[in-house]
Design a protein that fits this description.
Number of strands: 81
Structural class: mainly beta
Number of domains: 4
Shape: rod-shaped
InterPro entries: PbH1
Protein name: Right handed beta helix region
Radius of gyration: 44 Å
C-alpha cells in the first residue's frame, strides 16, 4: 500500500528548534505487518495510593497542568515537532520521544486505525482538522500524567476545525485527552455545528477523562444515530457557544459524572428534531449545566425517557416535551439511594410566561408517566395544543396517564395544568400551583376528581380551577371533588351527573352565567359540609361567578330517586337563572323534580333570581330542616300542592322579596296521602285553581294559607282537613288581597269524616269565584254533598257571601265561633 503520510521538520520560528529527542511514527507496511521506525518512550503505568493511574516516566518539569475528571495531569513540554499533511490510509501510531506533531490541512483517517500514544501533542494549523471516516478508527489514550493533546497552533478559539467522527462505527477511544481551541472553519462536514469534538452519522466513541475546552462554538456535538459507549468524567469548559450540541436521540450519552460548567453559556443544547422511538429507554443525567431544548422533543411508540434527579431543562420559544403513543416520561426529583430532595426543573430560556409550550402527555395510558418533586414553569405558550383543551405547563390529554406529586407548576401563560378527555391521573398530591395567568387548572367535568386537597392552588392571576362541561360524569363513575383552596369554576352549560358525585366539606363550586349542576337518570350528589371525624362545620358553597341574582341556573335533581342525594350545611346562592328549567316547574337555586329524592338540611339558600327552591312532581324530600331561605327574588320556594308537606317549621323563610311559599295547585293531595303542613314563618300562597284533598291534610298551629284570586281549598271524596290551632297560634286562611270575595273559600264535598275540624282558625275574605262546586251559595266555609265538619273557637269573617253554608244532607257542628262582617250573613242552610 502506498504511503500517503509526509513527515517533515519545521524551523525554530514555529515551536522549537531541532529534531533531537523526537521519535518517528510507526506505520503498517504494505503487507499489513506493523514495523517500527523508532522506539517510543515507555508508557508503562502503575497505580498510586489514591487509586489513580500514573505513568512511570516523570512528566516534563516545564509542562502546564491540566485537570481531568479524576486527577490533574501535565501537558507535554516543548520539542521540535514533525508535520502531518496527508490522509492516513494505513494503521499508524503517533508518538515517541518528542511526541509533537503539526497538522496542516485536514487529515482523513480512512480504512485505518490512527493510534496516538500517551504524552503526544498534535498542533493544528488554522482551519486544519482531523476526520475519522466511515471505516477509520481513532485510539487516543493518554494517562493522567501523560495526556494526549489536540490543540491549535495559536491559543485562539476556533483556530482549527476539531476532531470529527463521520459514520465511524468502530471502537474509537479517547482517554485523558485535551481537545482545545477548535470549533472553527466554514464547513464541518455533516456535523450539526462546529465543535472541538463532533460525533456524527452512526459513529461510535468512548471518551473519558478528557478536557474539551476553548472552542469557538461547542465543546462537542452528537448526531442522532451515534453510539457513545462512554462519556464519563470529561471536563467541558470555556467554550463559546456552550458545552455541547446534541440531538434529542443522543442527549442520554452526556454523562453526569463530567463537568460542563465554566462555558460562556453553561448549556448542553438539545435539538428536538428526531423523536425518541420504539426501544428507546434511557436517562438524561443531571449535569452542572442546563439542557437547553430547541423545538419539540417527542417520545413515540413505547419510548421511555428518565430525567435524573437534579436536572434542569430549559426550553427555547415554542419548544416543548411531548409524550405520546404509549411512551413514558419518568422525572422523579428524589435521590433513590438517600431520599434526598433534588428537584427537576423544566423552565423557559426566558423567564416569561408562555415562553415555551409545556409538557404534553397524549395517548399514553399503558403505564403512568411520573412527575415528582419537579418545577415546571414559564410554559403554556405556543399555537398548538395537540389534544389538550387549553394551554398549560402540564397537559394530559387523549387518554394519557400520569402521576404528578410534590411538584410546583407556576408562571404559565395559560393554566398550571390541563386534564383533558379520558385521562387517568393516578396521583395529584402535595403540588403547588401558583402564579399562572388564566388560573390554576383546566379540567373536564369528569376529571375534576383527580385534584387533591393536599395541594395549594392559590396566588394565580385568577384563583380557580376551570371545569369544562363536556363529557358528563358517567354512570360508571363514583367520584369526589376535594375541598381545594380555590373554587371549581364551571363556566358554561350544565355538569350532567349520571354517576355519583361527592363534594367534600369546605369546597366552593362557582358557576358562570347560565351554567348549572344537573343530577339525572339515577345520578347522585352528596354535599355534606360537616367533617365526618370531628363534626366540624365546613360549609360547601355553590355560587355564581358574579354575585348577581340569577347569574347561574342552580342545582337540579331530575329522575334521580336516590337516598344518597343530600345537601347538608351548604350555601346555594345567586342561581335561579337561565332560559331553561329542565323538568322543574320554576327557576330556583335548588330544584327537585320528576320523581327525584333529596335531603336538604342546615343549608342557606339565598339570592336566587327566582325562587330559593322548587319541589316539582312526584318527588320525595326526605328532610328539609334547619334551612335559611332568604333574599330570593320571587319568594322562598315554589312547590306543588302534594309536595308542600316537605317543608319544616325548623327552617326560616323570611327576608325574601316576597315572603311566601308558592303552592301550585297541580296534582292534588291524593287518597293515599296523609300529610302535614308545618307552621312555617311565611304564608303558603295558593295562586290559581283549588287545592283538592282526597287524602288527609293536617295544618299545624300558627300556619297561614294565603289564596290568590278565585282559588280555594276543597276536601273531596273522603278527603280530610284537620286544622287545629290554639288561642295563641291560630291557623289563618286568608286572601292575598284583604277584599271580600277575593278567593273562593274552604269547601267540604262528599267527605263524611269525623276528622274534618276547624278549631282556633281564622277564615276570611273568601266567598268569591264563579264556580262553587256542589255549594249553592258563596261562603267562606261550605259543607256540602253529605260532608261533615266541626268548627269551634274560630273566626269566620269578611266573606262576599255567607260565613258558612251547609247543605241539607251535610252536618256542621259549630260552637264558640265569631262569624262577623260577612256580606250575606253568618250562615245559610240549603
Amino acid at each position: 500500500m502506498k504511503r500517503r503520510r509526509l513527515l517533515k521538520t519545521i524551523g525554530a520560528g514555529a515551536l522549537a528548534s531541532g529534531l533531537a529527542g523526537c521519535s518517528s511514527v510507526s506505520t503498517g507496511n504494505e503487507d499489513g505487518n506493523e514495523t517500527s521506525k523508532a522506539t517510543a518512550s515507555s508508557t508503562a503505568s502503575k497505580t498510586t495510593e489514591d487509586g489513580t493511574t500514573a505513568g512511570t516516566d516523570a512528566p516534563p518539569s516545564d509542562g502546564k497542568r491540566v485537570a481531568f475528571g479524576d486527577c490533574t495531569g501535565v501537558l507535554p513540554g516543548e520539542c521540535s515537532p514533525q508535520t502531518l499533511t496527508d490522509d492516513i490510509t494505513e494503521d499508524t501510531t503517533l508518538g515517541g520521544d518528542c511526541n509533537r506533531y503539526v497538522v496542516e490541512g485536514t487529515i482523513d483517517v480512512t480504512g485505518a486505525t490512527l493510534t496516538v500514544t500517551a504524552g503526544t501533542e498534535l498542533v493544528f494549523e488554522q482551519n486544519a482538522g482531523l476526520k475519522i471516516a466511515a471505516d477509520g478508527t481513532l485510539v487516543a489514550e493518554g494517562t493522567c500524567e501523560r495526556p494526549v493533546v489536540f490543540t491549535g497552533q495559536q491559543r485562539t478559539r476556533g483556530f482549527w476545525r476539531g476532531i470529527y467522527f463521520e459514520d465511524s462505527d468502530n471502537p474509537n477511544a479517547m482517554a485523558y485527552c485535551v481537545v482545545e481551541y477548535a470549533g472553527g472553519g466554514d464547513e464541518f462536514w455533516q456535523a450539526d455545528d462546529n465543535a472541538n469534538l463532533a460525533v456524527g452519522g452512526s459513529s461510535r466513541l468512548a471518551a473519558s477523562n478528557c478536557a474539551v475546552r476553548e472552542s469557538a462554538a461547542w465543546g462537542f456535538t452528537f448526531g442522532p444515530e451515534v453510539n457513545v459507549d462512554d462519556f464519563s468524567k470529561n471536563i467541558v469548559t470555556a467554550n463559546a457557544a456552550g458545552a455541547g450540541f446534541v440531538r434529542d436521540a443522543s442527549a442520554h450519552h452526556v454523562d453526569g459524572s463530567g463537568t460542563y460548567a465554566g462555558n460562556d453559556d453553561d448549556i448542553v443544547h438539545v435539538w428536538g428534531r428526531d423523536g425518541l422511538g420504539a426501544g428507546f429507554d434511557a436517562t438524561w443525567d443531571a449535569l452542572d449545566a442546563r439542557y437547553r431544548v430547541a423545538k419539540l422533543v417527542e417520545l413515540r411508540t413505547d419510548a421511555h425517557l428518565t430525567i435524573a434527579p437534579g436536572t434542569t431543562l430549559s426550553f427555547e420559544q415554542e419548544a416543548g416535551l411531548k409524550v405520546s403513543e404509549s411512551s413514558q416520561l419518568t422525572a422523579a426529583g428524589i435521590d433513590p439511594n438517600t431520599e434526598e430532595s433534588k428537584p427537576i426543573t423544566f423552565t423557559g430560556e426566558q423567564k416569561t410566561r408562555g415562553f415555551w409550550r409545556g409538557l404534553y402527555f397524549e395517548t399514553s395510558d399503558r403505564v403512568p408517566s411520573v412527575l415528582e418533586n419537579c418545577v415546571i414553569e414559564y410554559g403554556g405558550g405556543g399555537d398548538e395544543y395537540w389534544t389538550a383543551d387549553a394551554h398549560a405547563n402540564v397537559a394530559v390529554g387523549g387518554g394519557a396517564r400520569a402521576r404528578i406529586t410534590r411538584s410546583t407548576l407556576r408562571e404559565s401563560g395559560g393554566y398550571g395544568f390541563n386534564f383533558a378527555e379520558a385521562v387517568t391521573i393516578d396521583s395529584f398530591v402535595n403540588n403547588t400551583v401558583t402564579r399562572n395567568a388564566t388560573g390554576a387548572g383546566h379540567v373536564r367535568d369528569d376529571r375534576a376528581q383527580f385534584l387533591s386537597d393536599t395541594g395549594t392552588y392559590t396566588g394565580n392571576d385568577v384563583d380557580r380551577v376551570y371545569v369544562w362541561q363536556h363529557d358528563d360524569i358517567g354512570t360508571d363513575l363514583d367520584v369526589t371533588w376535594d375541598a381545594i383552596d380555590v373554587p371549581y369554576f364551571v363556566d358554561t352549560g350544565a355538569i350532567e351527573t349520571y354517576g355519583n358525585l361527592t363534594i367534600d366539606p369546605g369546597t366552593t363550586v362557582e358557576f358562570g352565567q347560565d351554567a348549572g349542576l344537573k343530577l339525572l337518570d339515577g345520578g347522585t350528589l352528596t354535599a355534606v359540609g360537616i367533617v365526618p371525624d370531628t363534626e366540624e362545620s365546613k360549609p360547601i358553597t355553590f355560587t355564581g361567578g358574579q354575585k348577581t341574582r340569577g347569574y347561574w341556573r342552580g342545582i337540579y335533581f331530575q329522575q334521580t330517586d336516590r337516598t344518597e342525594n343530600q345537601l347538608r350545611n351548604c350555601v346555594v346562592e345567586y342561581g335561579g337563572g337561565g332560559d331553561e328549567y329542565w323538568s322543574a316547574d320554576a327557576k330556583a337555586n335548588v330544584a327537585v323534580s320528576n320523581g327525584s329524592r333529596a335531603r336538604i338540611d342546615g343549608c342557606t339558600i339565598r339570592e336566587s333570581g327566582a325562587w330559593g327552591f322548587d319541589f316539582s312532581d312526584d318527588v320525595s324530600v326526605d328532610s328539609f330542616t334547619r334551612n335559611t331561605v332568604t333574599a330570593n327574588a320571587e319568594g322562598a320556594g315554589h312547590v306543588r300542592d302534594d309536595t308542600a308537606h316537605f317543608l319544616s317549621d325548623t327552617s326560616t323563610y323570611t327576608g325574601n322579596d316576597e315572603d311566601r311559599v308558592y303552592v301550585w295547585q297541580r296534582d292534588d293531595i291524593r287518597e293515599s296521602m296523609a300529610v302535614t303542613w308545618d307552621a312555617i314563618d311565611v304564608p303558603y300562597f295558593i295562586d290559581t285553581g283549588a287545592v283538592s284533598v282526597y287524602g288527609a291534610l293536617t295544618i299545624e298551629p300558627g300556619a297561614t294559607l294565603e289564596f290568590g284570586q278565585d282559588t280555594g281549598l276543597r276536601m273531596y271524596d273522603g278527603g280530610i282537613l284537620s286544622a287545629v290551632g290554639t288561642g295563641d297560634e291560630p291557623i289563618t286562611f286568608t286572601g292575598e288581597q284583604k277584599t271580600r270575595g277575593y278567593w273562593r273559600g274552604i269547601y267540604f264535598d262528599d267527605t263524611n269524616r269525623t276528622e274534618n275540624e276547624l278549631r282556633y282558625c281564622v277564615v276570611e275574605y273568601g266567598g268569591g269565584g264563579n264556580e262553587f262546586w256542589n255549594a249553592k251559595e258563596h261562603a267562606n266555609v261550605a259543607v256540602t254533598n253529605g260532608s261533615r265538619l266541626s268548627i269551634r273557637h274560630s273566626t269566620v269573617r269578611n266573606s262576599a257571601g255567607y260565613g258558612y253554608e251547609v247543605t241539607q244532607d251535610s252536618t256542621l257542628t259549630a260552637s264558640a265561633n265569631s262569624v262577623v262582617d260577612n256580606a250575606l250573613g253568618a250562615s245559610v242552610n240549603t
